[in-house]
Amino acid sequence: MGEVDAAGKVYLSDPVRFADAFNWLVYDGKQVIDPDELAQCDPNELVFAYGNDATEPVQRIRDVTRIWQAMDDGRAAYVVLGVEAQDAVHYAMSVRCALYDAANYAGQVGEAAKSYRRKRAGNGERDEGEFGGSEVNENDRGPMTQGSAEFLSGFRKDDRLMPVVTLVVHFGEGDWDGPTSLHEMLDTADAEILRLVPDYKMNLLSPSNMSDDDLDRFSSDLGLVMRYIKYAGNKSELERITQGPLGGQPLDVDAMRLLNAAVGTRLAVEEGGQQMEMAKGFKELIDEYTEKGVKKGRKEGVKKGRKEGVKKGVKKGRKEGRREVLAELVREGILSAEDAAAFADVNVAEFELANATTEG
Questions:
Q1: Which residues pair with 69 in a beta bridge?
Q2: What are the tens digits of pLDDT across the range 186-215?
Q3: Who has greater pLDDT, 177 or 123?
Q4: CB atoms < 10 A from the CB of 137, how many?
Q5: pLDDT of residue 293 exceeding 70
Q6: Which of 253, 242, 304 is closest to 279 using CA atoms?
Q7: Among residues 10, 55, 87, 76, which one has the least CA distance to residue 264?
Q8: Percentages helix, strand, coil for the chain, rounded to the nearest 5?
Q9: Which of 23, 95, 213, 340 gets the highest tally of CB atoms within 10 A of its CB?
């Protein structure tokens, strides 16, 4: 895992930021998901490997995973929320997210099947199930009948799975220029084929692809961090942010470490880091961009000067070469000095002086 990815994982592990990211994604910034309603869960997923040499399922670890206990029509409902922090663009991210989510659903089915098998074993029944199910209200629904569809699948007709939502947070400075859906990755434009292939769209937060209005809908310092990354290469915007009201917002250690890794700031990483240190770090970054701009301007100026010099030299060479040809024609008696001077766009005296200097 790269430095930015590692710092992003730690940064988004904070429940306030985690909830803020999903409130932005799901509820347009409204504070619906309460950080206190987020519970830790196992980030490991068993996913099926793919590729020419892949033979067995492999274990993958999501960056951050939480279970949100929400209320749905007066009853508790649970949603699995997962975050993937990315520095570089991952051009197969849609497939990766699909694998994570499918693995989680398969895991839920498998855990339900285990609960039914444990229930049957406790009742002295033979354990033959393999997949699916849930022990919620198991006593009210009675045992599964051997040979039935429920028994064979291990999943009851009225069982339900927890929704899984995966969010990719891009902490890179450039645009996310990769596909954001499975259909974009398929090598066909046949509408009839695509109609039969379920699309899988990834959820993405990428600062460079977001407007200022988008960034304003965050309630935590996630909005400020994303704004700094968005404008990391823009000196005037960095100055505006740092010197404006947003620049007075303090950043904690995790936020500063992330910005140091993502955009090369030199924020003083200390416990309880203050805005003054933040501003100082960004001033150094702004000065660095300014110096780079001066050096670039000098380099381009020298290059342009050389180019202009070459053009002038060629022009001068052509002009002098033309005079030499005209002088030769005069010496051969083909042209008079007056006609040659007219062709060279000079008076006769200047032409004869130039000719004499060349011969000398």
A1: 78
A2: 999 999 999 999 999 999 999 999 999 999
A3: 177
A4: 9
A5: no
A6: 242
A7: 87
A8: 55, 10, 35
A9: 340
Alpha-carbon span 92 to 47, nearest angstrom? 15
Q: Are 96 and 102 in contact (CB under 8 A)?
A: no
Bridge partners (DSSP) listed for residue 68: 38, 79
Please state the pTM of the whole predicted model.
0.68
Q: What is the DSSP letter of 220?
A: S
Rounded-to-integer distance, Cα 348 and Cα 199, Å:
83
Question: Model confidence over 84-109: pLDDT tens digits?
Answer: 999 999 999 999 999 989 888 888 88
10-36 tens-digit pLDDT: 999 999 999 999 999 999 999 999 999
Which residue, 110, 111, 49, 40, is CA-closest to 82? 40
Number of residues assigned to the chain: 360
Q: Which residues contact 3 (CB under 8 A, 6 or more apart)?
A: 87, 261
Query: What's the rounded Cα separation, in Å, for the pair 255 and 223?
Result: 11
Cα angle 79-150-110, degrees, rounded to a multiple of 5? 45
How much is the CA Rg of the chain, to the nearest whole Å? 35
**Which residues lie closer than 8 Å to 227 by C-beta, 6 or more apart?**
207, 212, 215, 241, 246
